[in-house]
Amino acid sequence: MPKVLISDQMDPKAAEVFRAAGVEVDEITGLSKDELKAIIGQYDGLAIRSATKVTADVLEAATNLKVVGRAGIGVDNVDIPAASARGVVVMNTPFGNSITTAEHAIALMFALARELPAADASTQAGKWEKNRFMGVELTGKTLGLIGAGNIGSIVADRALGLKMKVIAYDPFLTAERAVALGIEKVELDELLARADFITLHTPLTDQTRNILSRDNLAKTKAGVRIINCARGGLIDEAALKEQLESGHVGGAALDVFVEEPAKQNPLFGTPNLVATPHLGASTTEAQVNVAIQVAEQMSEFLTRGGVTNALNMPSLSAEEAPKLKPYMALAEKLGAIVSQLEGEKASAIAIEVEGAAAQLNQKPITGAVLAGFMGVYSQSVNMVNAPFLAKERGLDVREVRHDREGDYHTLVRVTITTPEGQKSVAGTLFANAAPRLVEIFGIRVEAELDGDMIYIVNEDAPGFIGRLGTLLGESGINIATFNLGRRTAGGEAVALISVDSAVGQDAAGRIKAIAGVRTATPLRF
Ligand SMILES: NC(=O)C1=CN([C@@H]2O[C@H](COP(=O)(O)OP(=O)(O)OC[C@H]3O[C@@H](n4cnc5c(N)ncnc54)[C@H](O)[C@@H]3O)[C@@H](O)[C@H]2O)C=CC1
Ligand SMILES: O=C(O)C(=O)COP(=O)(O)O
């Protein structure tokens, strides 16, 4: 039974969903990094929010880990390249808390407009400072969105309802989408110059880090109010403090900080600062949504192989998974044979699908070919880390889809580019979904790729099979199946022989010594 650790505070529904799916769960929150490293080796899955830091060394200790599930959106607390390199799928729940977070941004905008936190504190302190608090109206004001994705677009919708004018800077926002949202797409400098309120809704990346830098803060309209419910690190906190103190920035409401938990942030105590402790996603509704969703996604992956909302591998629905399974077995074997025979020389690999295979999601087939190909070089390769390892090895990967049907109702072809030219192998699925190699380097064969095998290239001449059989018998190697193919009568022939025990280099050497044999390569699948 797969076992999952929930290491951050999560709605109890998550554990219920895991158990109902037949997944064992432990819930242990507040672990230090060393404590997490000490126990993570037992788990197949790790369910987190933003507190657990899934760093490269945590992943190194996670020897059984197959999936990290983020009950929420941001995955900047997960080292995704390290997870990919170790073959660990990382998934999130991209929509479950977006309305809630958008509502928090709107709440903070109101808090700034009417100085609600300060007015509340003053009133409860018995001061009744009616003349101290003079707010601004939102109607007719310009709201500048930096990032107009899921959350940003919900914020836009709510702000339009408040009769604000909404402008957005988001390089990936299309003109059509901006029109559909009823907002104006602008460049960053224009947004900085025009916005009365700025709200941030981008992930934290190398491009967005410090997007409200000292320079950019200086370009904002005097009195601008800034809201950040996305990630600390998007704003230069020291520069913001100065701008709040000078009054150029009229107010800032921050839910997120460069360092969290933020117990001693230099901004604390600055005038017109409103702070909440990363509460964007903290509503009952959102937490139930993300808890159920992450547990369903992780359970589906661990028990049925379905992949949803993964950040480092293509999606594969639980419905597609059984259809693709035999193709992935075929693809992995094709990748493995081409790699064992000619992989060292390959600079590029093309994966072509034809006939029925062309109707399927090709990404998992490509992933399986690469897993078979790279699996020859290193252990613990799977579909998650294979593309990453292939890229590291400098292998160019290309996918081709042919709608035509050739001689086979379905075909997967793997072609590598070597200094001697292109070389390809192809396979099909028989009616019972059994994978079969049907072509090897231009020669038609029909072979099952399984267990120990030997691949021989020889000159097609009488007596060869007898001599080979005798030699294998003398070496104590029992033949299970024998598959032959040849380019032309009397020309180059190939034999793919399944054997009951591994063919060592010694036996391979003796086979090579048989007259007419060009190569003899032991294979394993
Ligand atoms: N405070 C909290 O508790 C929560 C915070 N978040 C955070 O909110 C942020 C946004 O989440 P979503 O809207 O779901 O993400 P999303 O991926 O749907 O949208 C992000 C948008 O940012 C845009 N973007 C990317 N690079 C950009 C750049 N250099 N300049 C401008 N725009 C850029 C993208 O094109 C995209 O439209 C994330 O950082 C997420 O972690 C999400 C949920 C809760
Ligand atoms: O979903 C996100 O990106 C969030 O920032 C929410 O974080 P949390 O799950 O509340 O720790």
Q: Top keywords for this entry?
A:
about 525 residues, alpha/beta, Rossmann fold, 60s Ribosomal Protein L30, Chain: A, 4 domains, seven-stranded parallel sheet, binds 1,4-dihydronicotinamide adenine dinucleotide
CATH architecture of the largest domain: 3-Layer(aba) Sandwich
Structural class: alpha/beta
The CATH topology of the largest domain corresponds to Rossmann fold
Total domain modules: 4
| Number of E-state strands | 22
How large is the radius of gyration? 30 Å
CATH hierarchy, class of the largest domain: Alpha Beta
**Strand percent estimate:** 15-25%
Largest sheet: 7 strands, parallel
Enumerate the strands of the largest sheet in spatial order, edge to edge or round the barrel: 8-7-6-9-10-11-12
Characterise this structure.
This protein is an alpha/beta fold and 525 residues long. It has four domains: 114 residues, Rossmann fold, CATH 3.40.50; 178 residues, NAD(P)-binding Rossmann-like Domain (Rossmann fold, 3-Layer(aba) Sandwich), CATH 3.40.50.720; 121 residues, D-3-phosphoglycerate dehydrogenase, domain 3 (60s Ribosomal Protein L30, Chain: A); 76 residues, 2-Layer Sandwich (Alpha-Beta Plaits), CATH 3.30.70.260. It contains 17 helices and 22 strands. Strands 8-7-6-9-10-11-12 form a seven-stranded parallel sheet, sandwiched between helices. Strands 14-13-15-16-17-18 form a six-stranded mixed sheet, with helices on one face. Strands 2-1-3-4-5 form a five-stranded parallel sheet. Helix 1 packs parallel to helix 12, helix 5 packs across helix 7 and helix 14 crosses helix 15. It is elongated and about 110 Å long. The two termini are 27 Å apart. The protein binds 1,4-dihydronicotinamide adenine dinucleotide and 2-oxo-3-(phosphonooxy)propanoic acid. The site of 2-oxo-3-(phosphonooxy)propanoic acid (HPV) has 10 residues, from loops. Pfam families: 2-Hacid_dh, 2-Hacid_dh_C, ACT, PGDH_inter. InterPro entries: ACT-like_dom_sf (IPR045865), ACT_dom (IPR002912), ASB_dom_sf (IPR029009), D-isomer_2_OHA_DH_cat_dom (IPR006139), D-isomer_DH_CS (IPR029753), D-isomer_DH_NAD-bd (IPR006140), NAD(P)-bd_dom_sf (IPR036291), PGDH (IPR006236). Catalyzes the reversible oxidation of 3-phospho-D-glycerate to 3-phosphonooxypyruvate, the first step of the phosphorylated L-serine biosynthesis pathway. Also catalyzes the reversible oxidation of 2-hydroxyglutarate to 2-oxoglutarate. GO terms for molecular function: NAD binding; phosphoglycerate dehydrogenase activity.
